[in-house]
Write a structure and sequence with these properties.
The chain has 249 residues and is of the alpha+beta class. The protein folds into two domains: 148 residues, Sandwich (Jelly Rolls), CATH 2.60.120; 86 residues, Arc Repressor Mutant, subunit A (Orthogonal Bundle). 41% of the residues lie in helices and 22% in strands. Strand 3 and strand 4 form a beta hairpin. Helix 1 packs across helix 2 and helix 5 packs across helix 8. It is globular, with a radius of gyration of 20 Å. The two termini are 38 Å apart. The relative contact order is 0.12.
Length: 249
């Protein structure tokens, strides 16, 4: 789905919102009537690269669905330093925890590039779900999947080395922002490679290490013929090797 322009016609906006919801795994199989109800309570907003996605009322509870672009999810560690937790791409929903009435805002969100988001007020979405209680099951399953992935990530972070964490993040970015290209003859995988639009600073924030450490790790991967680094982007030349590093025990 191409990036939507800032539509002003209400009918067109509703159509874009419904398309965006249908691309989201959480809502994809929900009945048309329910999607229509959700689209009517939703708001479509556009954010330029680097813009903070912050509601005027910071106590407002809402979910966000990425229609186009990428959303950087970040937080602050115990030392007060900001770190990037992950990148979220089209079809993903964030803020499920905001369905809970207790607790404040946990993460910050920033447009990693020009991004369109669907904003869903939690109270209104809860009312729609309460009218069709069976759909709460989908919310519960997605929440449990997120919890499982979070536990796995924490285990690997605690038990694995920096090389493993860097490989995991590169695979994550590859799934989201990988652009397949035809590389040179020396490239493994029949000359095919994956170009990633991500900076070393972004990687450093996501792995919670210094830029110098990222530079060192990428240098090691480059010497092994696994990646090729250039300004503002990386090219993965050997995906199987990168997976082996990420999955090492």
């Amino acid at each position: 789905m191409p990036a939507p322009t800032a539509a002003t016609d209400p009918t067109q906006v509703q159509a874009l919102i419904q398309q965006g919801l249908r691309r989201c795994a959480l809502f994809a199989a929900w009945p048309d009537l329910v999607i229509d109800r959700i689209a009517r309570i939703a708001r479509l907003a556009h954010y330029p690269r680097g813009a903070e996605v912050i509601p005027k009322d910071r106590t407002r509870r809402e979910l966000k669905v990425v229609v186009s672009g990428y959303l950087a999810v970040s937080g602050v560690n115990a030392g007060g330093s900001k770190f990037m937790l992950t990148l979220v791409g089209p079809g993903e929903v964030v803020g499920l925890v905001r369905l809970l009435k207790q607790g404040g805002r946990i993460y910050d969100y920033q447009a990693h590039e020009d991004t369109a988001l669907i904003h869903l007020p939690s109270d209104a979405l809860e009312a729609v779900l309460d009218q069709t209680p069976a759909l709460w099951k989908d919310v519960a399953f997605l929440t449990m999947e997120r919890q499982r992935d979070s536990i796995i990530a924490m285990q690997r972070s605690a038990l694995g080395g920096v090389s493993q964490r860097v490989a995991e993040i590169l695979l994550q970015v590859a799934r989201l922002k990988g652009e397949r290209i035809l590389a040179g003859k020396g490239t493994r995988g029949e000359g095919r490679a994956l170009r990633l639009r991500v900076s070393q600073s972004d990687l450093a924030h996501m792995v919670s290490v210094s830029r110098q450490t990222i530079n060192k790790e990428l240098g090691l991967l480059a010497r092994e013929g696994i990646v090729q680094a250039a300004y503002g982007q990386l090219t993965v030349l050997d995906m199987p090797a990168l997976r082996r590093i990420a999955e090492q025990r």
